[in-house]
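Retry 2 of 3 after timeout on previous attempt. Resubmitting structure tokens to design endpoint.
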């Protein structure tokens, strides 16, 4: 294939992945970002000698021989990961991994103890889970008649549920028991999705049992890597954008930081370059964009260059809302009170109401739930010797119906700290550094007019904007594109976009 000049707008994980592949294959890559450092939303925030990452970026597909790890190795990138898990605590019961490993089924047994009247439904859920894990495993294998038979057999076990939403499925199995429904549907509200909008086959993948106990073996019945594991990058997730950028630079790609790209230049139905905020025009053969789908196509490309099908996808897609995050540097070790580095504290059972409030600009002030996360557990360098990091965060509307983030943030941070103190006694007396992150900060970090922490809401049947756009030589990657959000998904999406670019240009 002819060497092409590829202009990439945004050094988030989507842009970096596309750039690393293109640079490796000998294309001329120029990557622009409004920020000084690469990474977009996974870049570090620093305050008073502490470093914090935006998220608990506990990731799938990253352990040795899992898909993202293997892909990074192909690029010559080897990053150490730490397998980990998360706890779940509700107002009435906890699902925190037991001190002594109690086997892969401890959550099922604990739920049956807590809800003996729903034991049949719990067993049915885990049969459904097992069948979908089998389908997942088989689909990752090379095609063969045996694979197709095993997948078909597994599918027969879940076929009767295929037209159900998560709400309908959990109502059917658990007779409307709101506490049990929360265990499996709660995570959807984090994605701003109402359980009535999401297809029920999603549930096992957002509630994989290995995410709740890092000791569960990933091999199963002699099959290697049957289950996926969850991991943090040792020393922080920003190691990944740094490494991808290193790979781009090693192939003579260029990173242009602190630079806003204002427009994509389209001529004769083809992207011919970009215009920077200072008016400079840069010619290129291919342009790759990311970020907010609506901002990108409405403000930077121009809707007049799209066809009606693509415009409809843009009109219908719904970005998730924002997060409100309080990062603290503390002079005591909070892990004596919360052993797991990440625990979700769900505080309400009305998921429909929670999602509705979020979408209507009403912040729950911690009443619907929050997470407590210790980033320095896997990145000890984030805190000075003898100190630790605590991040408390929750989902929130991007725009408040009453008040604004700048004036409300201190009071809201105090509320979250008070709630966290119920789990981490003495917390408020040990704070030596504090950094509050609101939707306004995330808008800046990601260059979006509406911050959306994980991409588009995964609404059943709703299409996301495809990588291949109606404008020739213009590709769209990142968390609001075709594949969706989350670190591994964004990386896989950009790989897919790059494959499409290759196949469209193969003959030239
Ligand atoms: C709090 C939080 C927790 C999370 N937790 C997890 C988790 O546990 N697991 C997981 O898998 N994922 C998690 N995610 C999601 C994941 O981090 C994102 O989906 C992913 O990093 C998004 O990558 P991206 O490339 O799409 O975009 P971004 O990270 O948004 O990067 C886009 C980049 O493009 C730049 N840019 C855009 N437009 C322009 C322009 N016109 N000019 C110049 N620069 C521009 C922006 O400055 C930015 O740097 C979390 C996210 C958040 C915020």
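Retry 2 succeeded. Sequence:
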């Amino acid at each position: 294939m002819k060497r092409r000049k590829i202009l990439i707008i945004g050094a988030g994980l989507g842009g970096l992945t596309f750039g690393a592949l293109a640079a490796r294959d000998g294309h001329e890559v120029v990557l622009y970002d409004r920020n000084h450092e690469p990474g977009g939303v996974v870049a570090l925030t620093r305050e008073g000698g502490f470093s914090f990452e935006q998220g608990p970026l506990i990731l799938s597909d990253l352990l040795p021989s899992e898909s993202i790890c293997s892909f990074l190795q192909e690029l010559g990138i080897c990053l150490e990961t730490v397998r980990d898990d998360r706890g779940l605590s509700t107002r009435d019961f906890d699902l925190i991994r037991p001190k002594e490993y109690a086997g892969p089924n401890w959550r099922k047994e604990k739920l049956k103890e807590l809800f003996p009247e729903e034991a049949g439904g719990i067993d049915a859920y885990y049969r459904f889970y097992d069948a979908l894990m089998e389908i997942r495993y088989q689909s990752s294998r090379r095609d063969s008649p045996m694979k197709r038979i095993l997948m078909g057999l597994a599918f027969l076990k879940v076929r009767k549920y295929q037209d159900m939403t998560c709400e309908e499925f959990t109502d059917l199995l658990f007779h409307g028991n709101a506490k049990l429904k929360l265990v499996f549907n709660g995570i959807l509200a984090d994605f701003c999705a109402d359980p009535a909008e999401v297809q029920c086959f999603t549930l096992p993948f957002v509630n994989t049992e290995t995410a709740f106990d890092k000791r569960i073996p990933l091999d199963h019945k002699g099959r290697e890597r049957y289950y996926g594991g969850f991991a943090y990058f040792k020393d922080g997730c920003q190691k990944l954008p740094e490494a991808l950028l290193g790979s781009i630079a090693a192939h003579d790609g260029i990173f242009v930081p602190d630079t806003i790209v204002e427009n994509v230049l389209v001529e004769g139905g083809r992207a011919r370059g970009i215009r920077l905020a200072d008016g400079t025009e840069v010619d290129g053969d291919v342009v790759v964009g990311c970020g907010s789908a609506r901002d990108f196509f409405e403000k930077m490309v121009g809707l007049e260059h799209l066809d009606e099908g693509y415009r409809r996808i843009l009109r219908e897609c719904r970005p998730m809302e924002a997060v409100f995050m309080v990062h603290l540097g503390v002079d005591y070790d909070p892990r004596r009170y919360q052993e797991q580095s990440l625990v979700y504290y769900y505080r309400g059972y009305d998921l429909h109401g929670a999602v509705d409030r979020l979408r209507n600009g009403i912040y729950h002030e911690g009443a619907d739930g929050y997470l407590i996360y210790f980033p320095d557990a896997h990145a000890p360098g984030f805190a000075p010797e003898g100190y630790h990091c605590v991040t408390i965060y929750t989902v929130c509307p991007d725009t408040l119906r009453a008040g604004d983030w700048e004036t409300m943030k201190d009071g809201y941070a105090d509320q979250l700290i008070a709630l966290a103190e119920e789990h981490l006694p003495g917390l408020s007396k040990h704070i030596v550094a504090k950094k509050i992150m609101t939707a306004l900060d995330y808008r800046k970090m990601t260059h979006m007019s509406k911050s959306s922490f994980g991409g588009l809401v995964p609404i059943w049947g709703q299409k996301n904007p495809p990588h291949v756009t109606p404008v020739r030589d213009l590709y769209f990657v990142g968390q609001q594109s075709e594949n969706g959000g989350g670190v591994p998904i964004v990386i896989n999406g950009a790989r897919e976009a790059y494959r499409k670019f290759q196949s469209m240009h193969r003959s030239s």
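Attempt log closed. The mean pLDDT is 96.
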